[in-house]
Fold each of these.
Amino acid sequence: MASITDFSGGHSGRETQWMLHFLISLTIVVVAGGYAVWQIMTLGHAAFNTTNAGIFWGLPIVLYDYFLLTSTGLVMVAAIYHVLGVEAFRPVAKRCLGLALAGLMGGVAVLFLELSNPLMALWATPLNLQTQSPLFWKILLVGAYTVLLAIVLFNSIKQPTVRPNPLVWPLALLALAITLVAGSVYGMMAMRPMWFGGEIPVVFLIESLVGALAFTMFFSHLAHGFRHNRMSDELRWLFEGPLARLFGALIVLHFLLHAGRAVTGWWSNAEGLQVWDHMLSGPLFYIGLGVCTLVPLVLMLLPATRSNGLAQVTSGLLVMIGLFIARYEFIIGGQQVPLFKGSWVQTQLIEYTPSMTEWALLGLGIGIANMVYGFAAWKLGGEDEA
Amino acid sequence: MAKWGMVIDLETCTGCQACTTACAMENSRLPGENWQDVLFYSEGDYPHLNVSWLPRPCMQCENPSCVSVCPTKATFVDEGTGVVLVDWNKCIGCKYCMVACPYGVRFYMDEAPVVEPDVKAAFPGEGRRQVWNPPFRMPDEYADPSKGIGVQPKGVVSKCTFCHHKITQAPEGVADLDEDDPETREFTPACVRVCAPKARFFGDLDNPESNVNRLIADRGGVRLKEETGNRPKVYYLSGGGSPVVPGQRSKRRS
């Protein structure tokens, strides 16, 4: 496995690691992506378990939003160094930007396979100026964000040492705007009480940041073969000090926002909020909020585990999974109440389980993101040396 | 210009679903994906059971959330009629309008069939986007993809058009489109025309002389989910009270 390749040989060892990372990711892309594309080409959207019965946005949209918000969060983390000038975050600034582009590519690829006419969106959206639509702004902002992120990364490839890049200012503002608009896509839906509320963009912002720190922690360890002692002193100090504390604080905020909405939703008799009853009766909610949130929080709070490499990797991985569960439950849960859908939707809540094709898209998204990241690290010098 | 609206008398409606069938035939709908549907509700336990039903077309809102959310303006309000339409040439299939519609009246073409067997397979279409070719498809001269009229192609969203292809042929200035009036019969929406107990009325809400306005005023017409601010142009008559629409939480599985 790429991650355990010994790169004590120095530069060539690292190259081998990233080459393996790239090749494994490519294999995943070919296998998972090939299956998904084949299914979509032969069955169309019937390959998905989304239906006209009410679950219109399924796992592919969950994946897209997950990758997109991770990407914007990573840019905001990079901005801590580039914009705010916090020197402690310099060792991960380049990695965050590289991961941001990689994640974005994975998410957009999945979205393009979910939309029926994605290329039309590229011209029909800017030309028709439906400024009332959150998606109009989201598409425009993501377009600008992608271009600017690519420019910033291209510049960083030419510079061997990381220096504050003024272009990260507008990039970080775009990332912030996208995150808030992505929350508004759901938060503005007054007809769906599960989603509706001004706090949703803030929830998305917190989740974006906490996810970004989790990815930073996990992939920094991966870059060092999951060997804590191979990290530079400044990187170790970052993970044991400022980043760990920020990570812990954001996990607390995430927990409070999530648990608070769950408790009020569970308590309320309002039509549409019965989804919380349903979610609280299943194990996924407790895995997401309990195991994947509280365990990392404890690991980050205790000084002994905070400075332990394995605990850091575990925390990062658990938060990454927990956020995915939270995003899945949020997006699917908001659609489970039928809303006059039809005489044939004879159920109180619409059930949904992703199809094999949708799961394959998860593999495709992860594969593309890692392929881009691995290739950039292998061939373009897109990784931090620290 | 007319502001077309509909009045549905719940005291007269028998739930026969002739409206659903007529709409499906007129607009080439797939079974189960009904632009015009009748929703049935049951509350309580036998023998203390209440069964009710609600005919549900598109509400053709004056302030439609589906229009506001569409990133490409594929969904729009037709200026001449006030009807909410979908331009299939601009729809990217993002389904945000389906998510944002409080009344569940929108349908995407390319999903697994809601009702088996899949009639699309029995009447396969030609070309990349034409999914099926129903034997009862409307004449080609009525079809207009820029208004979402005709056989719904692959990858776009569709909805009730108030039979736009019929009502736009009505004589200028007419107050109501009534199947009992020989002069307007042909221009009356299919669901209204076939309603056997005459529970449906269709007319110009901007015309103070229209029958629909008289019914709304005299019998206390109400609209569904007023709290959303969508301002539907479909009114229900329910004997003075609000329409009988139990929430999901009070419904029983039937």
Amino acid sequence: MADITLYHWEPNANSGKPMLALAEKGVAYDSHYIDMLKFDQHQPEYLAVNPQGTIPAMTHGDRVLTESTAIMEYVNDAFPGPDLMPPDPRDRWRVRWWMKFMDQWLGPSFSMIGWCTFVGPSLAHKSEAEREAMIARIPLPERRAAWRKAMFAEFGESELAESRRRIAQGVKLLEEELGKREYVASNQYSLADINIFNSTYMLPVGNGDLCSPEATPNIWRWLKAVYRRPAVQQTWAMGSGRFTDRFNAIMGEITA
Amino acid sequence: MTILYHGEPNGPSLSVLAALYESGLDIDCKPIDLLAGERHALPGVSDSVALDFAVEGEGPVLVADGEAMSEAVFLAQYFDEAAGGCGLQPSDPYARWQMLMWCRQATERLSPAVAYLGNLAWSQKRLAAMSQDEFHKLAGAIASEDLRQRWQELRDGAVDAAKVEDSKTKVAQFVARVEAQLVDGREWLMGPFSIADLETYAWLRPMRELEATAFAGQDRCRAWMDRVEARPSVQEALGRATADNSAHAFAPGPEINRWG
């Protein structure tokens, strides 16, 4: 049994970040799949690990770590293997800047659209009483409010429009950024690439108008380079394919 | 050529100036009037994405070789690392994770709350008094639509009562959090002094006047704030004030979490 256990959902968005960082470092871990749509994260077994009920979480010996970006930074600092932070201080600053931009500005907009179009509808078959019971088990008030919105389709048109505006703006900024250097934030593959790839690889599937070889050649080049990494292939093989199959099909056509 | 453009020593400008002085790096500092929009008209900026789209809003900007650098915590980490490690970050990976988690809570929960309350209390009138032409010119230089919207709402005096209440609660919760962290008698938040002390102090300082009740009975927190304030780096940063009361200096800050 490994000294490290990762509690995660699909190799996507937040769960995918520590999965990819561990794979890049070559660190073995026990994988504990938490089915978010079955609300495993709010069951007593998981709340005993992370009382906040958020995923992912990682245990390393008796330490419990939460927050996907911070877990990645810990993984990079704590284990040998390739350094996923560049050595230059300004490059390191840029890696952090882009991760915050994704975690707090662009990511929430991706998330809102995803929850509105995917997460909410996939629970619509449950009775109102069942959904209320699921919500009642959520520890954090902010998360309760978010799940309520998704389960009862309470998103307002103006907030969805604002999220779509931010996604278009964010893709434009990322395209410009990737025109400056080989990878996001520096010329070496880093935590910023892992972070941003996890939330943007679905762009060609869901936002083909914003992201395509013609519209965003720099993002396209970068998506292909990251996708080809053995750590990505190895990690995606651990998922159900729920998200990655369609991207695999697109990439298969391109790289064939 | 590297220049740090900073506002009055309050919030992010205070923590970044203090971190610079802790590092001992020799970097030119130039004061700017954040509430006059001067941050959006800096000379010599050829790469402005981090200035234009800083999650932090109107914070200090380090311009290095034409690249604008922003976000107070990351600038403090930059100073620490550019100085070859000046003790602002723990070297143990777990202690580092704990410090980063603390700083994230401070930047995601505390700073938007303080910025919301501080701007309404002390900056709204000055913005409202600006002529239409003057404000139009200022807002026109702001690249980010949502940041521009926060400026507009502040000028209009649009007060969201739920956000005010939520912000007051978050300030009180953070003071209580600091108090609990210090209960074992430690001198600094993470044990050894770190960026977490500077970041937290810099945002709590203006609340001692505005949200005084949040500090009532929180003696460890108040004593810790006095200790942070007594550090030579913080004194030097506070010494750069030009306003009568730098704790009243605010410009639109980070937005209150909209989702997720």
